[in-house]
Amino acid sequence: MVTRRTLRRHHLFRPDPAIAQLYLYTLGICAKEFGVQLHAFVLMSTHEHLVLTDTNKRLPDFLRRLHRLVALGTKVLRKWEGPVWDHERPSVVRLLTERAVIEKMAYVLANPVKAGLVQRAAHWPGVTVLPQELGRRTWKVQRPDFYFDARTWPDEVELTLTVPPVLQGPYTDAQIRDAVALELTHQERLAQAEVKKKGWRVLGSERIRRVSPYRRAKSFEPIRGRNPTFAVGRGQGQAFFAAVAELRAFRRAYRDALERWRAGLRQTVFPAGTWAMRCMHTAPVDSG
Description:
Strand 2 and strand 3 (about 45-55) form a beta hairpin. The chain has helices at about 15-35, 60-80, 100-115, 165-170, 175-200, 205-210, 235-260, 275-280; strands at about 1-5, 35-45, 45-55, 90, 95, 140, 155-160, 230. It has 2 domains: about 1-215 and about 225-235, 2-Layer Sandwich (Alpha-Beta Plaits), CATH 3.30.70.1290; about 240-280, no CATH class. By secondary structure, it is of the alpha+beta class. Helix 1 packs antiparallel against helix 2 (about 60-80) and helix 3 crosses helix 5. Strands 2-3-1-4 form a 4-stranded antiparallel beta sheet. The chain is globular.
């Protein structure tokens, strides 16, 4: 699951047809270019959430390209000076179990409800998907009439949702949609109760469309809190401890390999999962 926020939580992605077209077009361009499978996503006014599979091990390239194009298009559309995205790097969370994938897809869809913006996920007026669309919705998006030069960019891009490969064995596509729908209902109820407890007033889709894109979100949000690298889902204690052990082992192996590399041992093999050293310095990486 990937998350990235706008600079100082400005509402630069306020839902409207132009921002939706820009985001879906660039998402389609980049997914095709880097072989990324998209499973679920939502574009909130101040941030994005994506659940995807990186089939070609090029996720950093995909995110760099996507965020650059979205930022440049947004600057033109909103007449915005300066950065669009927050300076923090994107949050990338590996979903290590079937339960985690289902929960996080539902989390993505429930995000507008958790933020107190709408009563139900289906009411969000911006870019989102619904459980019944998972694995079978396709968008055909025309090239925006701003920023993208007709001589360079295609007139139309096709963007299709796919089912997460990790779920295709244990579940049918219909069962996946049912599982996400059930989890979404659960998360919506929790979010509605939390909104009521806090005394928030639900904004509603009509008022959301009228919010200035130059305003900043005012709700409290901790700065530089925990940024997890993986998720296993509820009740997955054994998987959690196994994932912690695997992550610690990777970091130890990476530190050891980096020390040998810096000492001039260019035949040092880095552990599987190493990206920057492989792509930027052609360091050998364990295929495991």
